Hints:
Elements: E1 14-18, E2 26-30, H1 37-41, H2 43-67, H3 74-86, H4 90-110, H5 113-141
Antiparallel strand pairs: 1-2
Helix pairs in contact: 2-3, 3-4
Amino acid sequence: MNAESDERGAAAATVVAESAAGDGHTTERELGSRAPGFIRASKVLHVSWQVGIFVVGLAVVGAGIVMLPLPGPGWLVIFGGMAIWATEFVWAQLVLRWTRRKVTEAAQRALDPKVRRRNIILTAVGLVIIAVLVGIYVWKFGIVMPWKIEE
Length: 151
């Protein structure tokens, strides 16, 4: 599964995470397994724990993938499954850290007045184009409800 999470001693990598408030306060967070100590002490128990975490995370990610085309919060469930995996696997922790950084950057860009103005203008233009296309369709074919179609 993940050899890096078996030995968390001095070889474990650490990351520096800034607080959500952006006040510059940083805390160090270790990468690797967050399993309880008694589970990490036994190799067999730890591997079983990792398999269980992997299976649960896979089920949640699979449910999220199913929800993408269906009604439901697909991406939210997928990221929830990734968070489950991140409790045990370094690769999932790195993916979530990268995703969090990209989402924060996108949020900061969205708050820029120039970008907001551009987005509002593009949305207005898109709505006008859709309204014109709907108007042309109604003018050409009229409004006929599906349940009143004559066969």
